[in-house]
Write a structure and sequence with these properties.
heterodimer, A: about 100 residues, mainly beta, 6-stranded mixed sheet, B: about 120 residues, 7-stranded mixed sheet, 4-stranded antiparallel sheet, about 0% helix
Chain lengths: ~100, ~120
């Protein structure tokens, strides 16, 4: 199962960033999102398409429909600069997208 | 706060076996609520799921690595372990252990800090 992400996304400080994750009928799967800052372990920011773990700001939200899942970061801050990975399961195997580098300008 | 900590050699010779252990704190690997997972990240690249293990010893492996991977769990030490045989330079990566929630086929809610493993003679 192939999961595709754009290599990079840029967003102006305070604006909204959208990071997409594509896959065949991905809307039928649960999509999870992770943030990874340089030199650190990934952190779960969205699970089961739309749910935020405790401690993750409300500025992070998710959606999933058709062939695209989307992570939306509202009011982007400098601290949001990181790599973001989506993750799904298919045939009992976990697949990660290739990651999207978010740059906050 | 749940904590996971990877440990093991940072340098492994080609064709040998990579062995890592993950020690869990403030949770129990004997809990029936989670799977325990290994994930790796080659330098400058993305994340790759290696496999999961449950308290019973039941395992799931990435098909691309299945022939070389063995996961085990030691509930008395609150640890789980990874062995990867016949390593090559392509196995050079940061190796993470993680807790999987909402199994089967859930999400990874706690991660270790990762440990760098280099395959080189």
């Amino acid at each position: 199962y192939e999961v595709t992400q754009s290599l990079s996304v840029s967003v102006a400080l305070g604006q909204t960033a959208k990071i997409t994750c594509g896959g065949d009928n991905i809307g039928s799967k649960n999509v999870h999102w992770y943030q990874q800052r340089p030199g650190q372990a990934p952190v779960l920011v969205i699970y089961r398409d739309t749910y935020r773990p405790s401690g993750i700001p409300e500025r992070f939200s998710g959606s999933n429909s058709g062939n695209t899942a989307t992570l939306t970061i509202s009011r982007a801050q400098a601290g949001d600069e990181a790599d973001y990975y989506c993750q799904v399961w298919d045939s009992s195997t976990a697949f990660f997208g290739g990651g999207t580098r978010l740059t906050v300008l | 706060q749940v904590q996971l900590q990877e440990s093991g050699p940072g340098l492994v010779k080609p064709s040998e076996t990579l062995s890592l252990t993950c020690t869990v704190s403030s949770d129990s690997v004997n809990s029936g609520n989670y799977f325990w997972t290994w994930i790796r990240q080659p330098p400058g690249k993305g994340l790759e799921w290696i496999g999961d293990i449950y308290r019973s010893g039941n395992t799931d492996y990435n098909p691309s690595l299945k022939s070389r991977v063995t996961l085990s769990i030691d509930t008395s030490k609150n640890q789980f372990s990874l062995k990867l045989s016949s390593v090559t330079a392509a196995d050079t990566a940061v190796y993470f252990c993680a807790r999987q929630r909402d199994f089967p086929r859930g999400y990874f809610d706690y991660w270790g800090q990762g440990t760098v493993v280099t395959v080189s003679s």
